[in-house]
# Entry
Amino acid sequence: MTAPNPESVTRCVQSAMQDAGIDGPKVDAINGHLTATYADPSELRSWSRALGRPPEDFPGITATKSLIGHTLGAAGAIESVAATLMLRGGFLQPAVNAEDVHPEIQAFDASIPHTMREVPDLRIMMKSGFGFGDVNACIVLEKWED
# Structure
């Protein structure tokens, strides 16, 4: 019940990209769930499939939950603000507690910031919320340039 269906996650991400008029290679970063749990391999495989990007070409992925905990109903709003601040500031916050990644996602390790990572060219970030009862949401955020 608490683990999202990988097919639903993939469709959710692809639908968000379609709505935004972008494709997977344009995504610079992801603010996902990545909580150093058994669900991480499923999440990363779903993102990889949805974006059409293998581990060696995967965008940076971080998780606000790793810094603040799970705020349940407020999680999406708080994480969207965090993603917006990362876009504005050109950085990715660290994904704490993910220093020793699950063996099934070892290939994605270079995409997981273990310390704050400067990303001056950060332009497009996707923010997701996958969870209870397979209720999924995903948005595409793009940095406004004058």
Remarks:
- The helical segments are 6-20, 40-51, 65-68, 75-89.
- The longest strand covers residues 124-131.
- The mean pLDDT is 89.
- Residues 74 and 129 are 11 Å apart (CA to CA).
